[in-house]
Structures
1.
Amino acid sequence: MNRTALRMTALSLVLALASHGAWAQAPIVIKFSHVVAPDTPKGRAAERFKQLAEQMTGGRVKVEVYPNSQLYRDREELEALQLGAVQMLAPSLAKFSPLGVKEFEAFDLPYIFPSKQALYAVTEGRLGRGLLRKLEPKGITGLAYWDNGFKVMSANKPLLTPADFRGLRMRIQASKVLDAQMRALGAQPVALAFSETAPALRDGVVEGTENPPSNMFTQRMHESQKHLTVSNHGYLGYAVIVNKKFWDGLPGDIRKTLERAMEQATVYEKTIAQRTNDAALESIRRAGTTTIHTLTPQQQAEWRRALQPVYTQMEERIGKDVVQAIRREANP
Ligand code: LMR
């Protein structure tokens, strides 16, 4: 075959491939890193977002979910996001102070939300959107709030009155409000990464902790905790965040489709959060490793009294206006 014929053949092959999209662009990859087990509200919602995003973009986006601190642990993940090493996270609202956005620690204040409805009034309203906007100067876009419900306390002794906490080494997330919370109860707070918590409980480095049941059960913390109190003294929620440069750089139609996928994943997450935690508490009960206590109204009132000083101690750090606005919105 002479040179011209060869060139014509090659050209017609390229055109044929291109016409069948055989050279379709490589997909846009979103690495979604998080620190909890797949079978938790956040873990299942991340998978749901993956399914929706890939399906709704017709495969133009590929979401790679990395659960259980596989890729990055607590503190590392925020740095990785800002560097663009990952594109999406959903850290606990207790973990944003390293970014300098201390206002999110308001969500850690004891008993600040009387109900889920009160919480949603904040996260779904002007206040919640305003808090997410505070992340923008840090190169981060906040997309949504995800829910993991109210926390319980655990240790190897019954925790029924504040006096029961005296001197206990209690693991907390790295939040100054949670540090103040444990000190108000007479305990010694120990901030550890989530991935280090279960081993620290097993080895006795810490004696107790707090978390929603779904996190306790999926990390098998109950196997090292003989007692659990359904205190619902505090809330654990998440902000789903992306690297702002990545997000703004997406084609407009792709970004709008991903926003819709995130909306649907968020609705899904909220519908499963409570029942996943209820099921986890039941699994802990059935495991027989842990005695589950509830507080009498008198005991609950005693916890509230002991924890009240946290508000005055933390108002300056979080912003008195933010705390008052949340309380107004959450208790109309
Ligand atoms: C914790 O560190 O206890 C939680 O923030 C983990 C999580 O992401 O639910």
2.
Amino acid sequence: MHTGNTELRHDWTRDEIAELFALPFNDLLFQAQTAHRKYFDPNEVQMSTLLSIKTGGCPEDCGYCAQSAKFETPVKAEKLMSVEAVLAEAKRAKEAGASRYCMGAAWRNPKDKDLEAVCQMVEGVAALGMETCVTLGMLTDLQAKRLKTAGLDYYNHNIDTSPEFYGKVISTRTYQDRLDTLSNVRDAGINVCCGGIVGMGEARSDRIGMLHTLANLPDHPESVPINMLIQTEGTPVFGTDRLDSLEFVRTVAVAKIMMPASVVRLSAGREQMSDETQALCFLAGAGSIFIGPKLLTTKNPAKERDDALFAKLGVRATPVADKTPRRHQAAE
Ligand code: SAM
Ligand code: DTB
Ligand code: SF4
């Protein structure tokens, strides 16, 4: 049984992961916080801001997503934003304290012409002194290389859930499609941001299966977003029972123990979470969040609420100039 040493493992069994999930809560959180401290400053949280550069009208049928054209949701399809408009938003996010700017597009995959516009956005955001991240759907190896030459720091592409549950949520592309894009991103030398969503009606065994896939990739993703499902009326998963908050915290903690050198991101769902749940997520090793009033199409906590929470917890933002979270030296 793994006890939180500094070795990065890629040979986790599902039984071992189930044992971690079943630990008494205090033991689990202690182990996760201990693992976190080997690599990160425990009072620093990296802050990113998201922007939907191309909203809605997506041809995919991801059952959780308000942007799919297959479902009747309140989200209206829009065109790709102009480079100037994106850079103006990025500047505001930097002034509000974000060190990374993440741009998302509701595409199955980018057309080469659109990719050129995204590359200009990446170059412009990097020139502002922020890290860059984009999430554009599936990429070919050439497209991944093109993004790398534009200076892209991170590509977000989630496996979303376990291989078994995946087909219950998405039918228009396969788990293997996701893995192929991740491998193209990795081979291009771009940092990988890959995680998933919980609270879609999956079983604990699916959360185990999801973390099993992530930690057993040839390299752990540098960033592992754990999203709590945000329910939108009209999507197939709308009306699913809300996942217990402590099970969410457990998922963050197990992710941290399995991938201690990765930044586990407390991603979608903070708006609906209590301060106490968020504090437990930080204790469980979440080292990164989204700030700003909006995620892609849904609400994120207001600045006043976040500032008050960070002050109460003594949490500091990873400085913008630092760009990457500080890692303790001995650990790698
Ligand atoms: N279209 C691209 C794709 O799917 O790869 C990029 C954008 S997509 C919105 C990025 C990720 O956001 C999804 O993979 C999913 O994990 C997450 N996401 C989307 N809708 C969500 C929701 N309602 N609640 C929580 N996470 C969500
Ligand atoms: C990720 O894992 N979570 C972010 C980001 N990657 C792109 C997206 C969350 C989307 C939440 C629903 C919305 O705002 O539309
Ligand atoms: Fe499209 Fe991405 Fe939403 Fe799936 S998650 S429907 S690919 S925007």
3.
Amino acid sequence: MRHHDDVVNASLRLESTYATAFPALAHPWSADPNPAPHAIVINNELAAELSLDAEWLASPDGMAALTGVAAIPGSMPVALAYAGHQFGSYSPRLGDGRALLLGELIDSTGRRLDLHLKGSGRTPFARGGDGRAALGPMLREHLIGEAMHALGIRTTRSLGVIATGESVRRETLLPGAILVRVAASHLRVGTFQYAAALGDRELLSALARYAIERHHPHAADDVCPPLALFAEVVKAQAELIAEWLLVGFIHGVMNTDNMTISGETIDYGPCAFMEAVDPLTVFSSIDEGGRYAFGRQPSIGQWNLARLAEAMLPLFDDDANRAGEVATEVLGTFGPTFSRHWHVGMRRRLGLVEHRDGDEVLAEDLIALMNAQHLDLISTMRSLSGHLRGDTVDLGSWTERWESRVTAEGRELATVAAEMDLVNPFVVPRNLAVQHALDTAVAGDLSSFQRLTHELADPYTRRDGVDDLALPGPAAPGFRTFCGT
Ligand code: AMP
Ligand code: MG
């Protein structure tokens, strides 16, 4: 391992509060050296937010720092320990098998953020894995994650993807890469499951305090801060999953180790955007039972949060029965919170500012209609503002119901239409376009990938030349996304 303290410029300094406070949950480890690292993509916008010099990041010294092979001041690289329910079955020891937390950086607004690598080599948690990541899936995480961010959906970010210069063996030999991820933190439901299984109540309690301080500081003022933390996580996740459903996002692997305490979307594997509306839509090749189908995401979210409650139970009350009761009560807020958030989102998307009786049914009927007619969610929603400007839409009598509801508010229709266009995306990552961009990027031509990255950063502006992102692809039954790990 190459260590030279002079390579890192003063702008990159890290802290290691988590690694220091939780040695039982963070295994000190170092990244593998790479033969010829070079940046495939650097996120200049995010670098600026983090007060990092993007040009320096892409330089050889920057590459050495970002791939974990050169020491960064304040950094104590660790592989994180966590457990998790994967497709419903419990694994007591997952952890970062191919990832490292380099440390925490403080952004320009004073927020503490994790700087994390994926694909940096085998760790003690690697089990049978090779510790590596292939370029395609890391570019997918970059592309989709940044698209989610542009849509205003809470997510981890990608600071960039670095080709390692090494090949990784999957079904074939593929170029290897490291994703440099920035997150509010990497605390997951699975982190609490792991801590709970250690049977050390003080550790669990300290973990809850740490999560409160970092993510949900108001919970500290509650009579029972751990329970208030749980309630905040339930709220954050219910709202997050409502946001997913509003844009047709399917995470694909909602295991408890892929669900954050912060409420950010994390771990873009076989994720995809639904085109024809159908709650049973599944793209992931590994989700044979459809456990993580589009419309099952709310109930799976709640199921995962029940696992979090189980892990945190000893912190809720010394009396186990009482702890179970209060946890159940809080868990029960998931459904109403999800539903409220989804309906508020739909109302805005339908151009309504008031809340009237019948709005919920109006929104639900539209989804049912799209489902029955196999309509694309995004372009159908977007077409509604066009209808207010005189275009025809093919939604039968629903259209008149909606129109009279909009008219009842007495607002100028041009204004309503303009406001709708600020919340109904014009472009989203369409499956065929994404696949094409990734395939060509892996083959060495980055032009499509760069174009998509650029276009998806502006989801709401109507423009020409982006049909591949604005419109659903040709019906591709059996289209599958692969975890690609
Ligand atoms: P993921 O599906 O990316 O959320 O990963 C699930 C678990 O498998 C985590 O513990 C990962 O660290 C581990 N894992 C995935 N791929 C690899 C790999 N190639 N080498 C080692 N561990 C891996
Ligand atoms: Mg994961």
4.
Amino acid sequence: MRVRTAASKSAKTRAAVWTAALFLPLAIAHSQGVIIPAPAHHTPLAGAFALSGTTQILVPKADADAAFAAHYLSDLWQLSNHINLSIIEKAPATPGIRFARSDGLPPEGYRLTVHPKSITVEASTGSGLFYGAMSLWQLLPAGASAAAIPAQRIDDAPRFAWRGLMLDSSRHFQSAAFVRSMIDWMARHKLNVLHWHLTDDQGWRVQIRRYPKLTSVGSWRDEHSYGGFYTQAEIKDIVSYAAERYINIVPEIDMPGHATAAIAAYPELGVGTEPLKVTSAWGVYTHLFNLEPSTFTFLDNVLDELMELFPSRYIHIGGDEAVKNEWNASPQIQARARELNIDSAGALQAYFTQRMGAYLKVHGRTLVGWDEILVPGLDKSAVVMSWRGVAGAADAARAGNDTVLSPQPMLYLDHRQSALAGEPPGRLDPSTTRGVYEFEAIDPKLDSAAVRHVLGIQANIWTEHINSEKRVEWMAWPRGTALAEVAWSKERNWPDFAQRLAGMFSRYQSLDLNYADSVFGIESRASAISGGARLTLANTNEAAGLATEIRYGIDRDPDLSTRRYLEPVDVEFGHELRAATFLAGKQVSRIWRQPVDVHTAVRHFSNDLKLCSDNVGLLLEPPDGERPIALDIMNPCWIEPRVNLTHGASIDARVAPLPFRYELVDDIKKVRYGDAKSTFGELEVHPDSCASAPIAVIPIPAPGSSELPRKRLPAMAGEHNLCLRFARPKLDPMWGLEWVEITE
Ligand code: TNX
């Protein structure tokens, strides 16, 4: 027996826990049902409908929308349940599913009635029929080829008209096929706006016939080794694919800032005299479009082609982070400002916004911009997308402008979604699924007139750190699932949502979505025992209040028959602890594994350490693909807490070079470098405070990832927090601490 429990809980506690677990299924039967987003009204009825592979779907004759919804549903069931229902236009003899038009139901709304002898989806619009179908899809448990669907009536309509996700295809490029798959996932969640961030400093991604260099030059970086763009044919195809699924694509051409790729292609658009390259670092650049009439002509021409491609009423012109250094320093811009009688760079941007808004308006379109566009005098027709928190939205709504909330960090899906090991790279400060779920869009201080200006909410997938399509999926779902519920449903109930999410996870699996299971992830701590490690496991705060249980096995996968985790588990060296989270008898996390060896209890990874500061926290992957490193790029420095140095100690560490690819404008002055004494730099160990004299300075032996030679730390009375930081010769690379191990 390799499992020893560290302490024994009383039989009474155990019995209580088990009783709670046994009663759980009853609680589910009384919940709001299974559908995400939760429908507005849900009424259980008597009996059940027996759905199986022979059930037929009846659609009204010549109703293309109904036929599309029916086919979409049947295709989905084919994928998630391996059943193939036939679609017919003549009433069947056997009980079936029926799509029907019903006037008077709200736009996008639907009624779904399950009777023992029939299922009916009714709506007045195509979108309503489609959403009814998406709800019906979820009534069949994933994987089941037949089920008794409880009779019920659902009357549903969305809370918000704008239920959006933003995809950044500039920083990293996704294939057209991936964008279509993303659209499908949005449609399944009744999300209806895809805000497509198509241009930025790091790449121009939309073909413009009139300006071929925007893509031949502007969509490639690093000497043409990274890039891509969407042809107009691909875009048209994606736009109509989205429209069929009731998703409007709002394209964004960012201006006057985030414009480096365009200026690299056509230098005459820029302010400076130096030629620019499409940038391959992240951050905020000072390159802005200039204010020449020819530049406005260029932008108008680009918008002309954009409007041809995107029928959307809303066109996004960015407007964010337009740092005015270049405008302020340029004699031409200043001369132009005098001509226009404009006395500040801020007012120049307002003029710019107004100019573009007027052009869009003439063409029957509405300007959308990030909250920087909200300055006195902004045209009332402009839509303000608040991202620097939520104040921009409240101010816009009060000013009489429509607004969409997409505040960072809550709805910023480039943040990692938990502090668990195993999250892919991203911004460090976690934005959890629960955090998204608990986001409240309506400021209670807004009066009803202002509330009417809140169009809805949106989560943004910025992709600086999301370099693959699989990772886009991981970052998008299930946070997008939580967003969908907040955008659609008025009621909110986290435990109930978490329960329904478990069912959704099965659908994700059956459709091969690389979703994150962080909500139900397992945190662990290890301490040393003789011959092994004692592992303490817990679910994260997100699961607090949910009836989750962790089950585990040693050298075997956990399942309902393996032990439930109730107290720390001792594992001998050479063996592996495997654990997973279960909710109501269903495994809801992937299997977490901890092989136990002499390092398990003593090795601390960057993610487990405290950072010395919190300026620009990122989780970054070293070029050799080792596990991501958590750090503040302004000050890469970690704290190993409470090390007993009474008898001295040994320190081992592994370090990795991380490319420094950040444009920080003036803040770069605050980054320390050039303080190294050896070729590649040194790891410094400071006791108690980073300002103290180092007790060890360990030269880095090689330019790549490496384990440092072991070093002795001198004896000092008592426990000390150790500050670990690097001296480095140059800005790039910066060193990351992968792990540290301190032993007596
Ligand atoms: C700020 S949000 C930006 C983006 C970055 C993002 C990273 C906004 C309107 N501008 O350019 O990608 O932060 O989280």
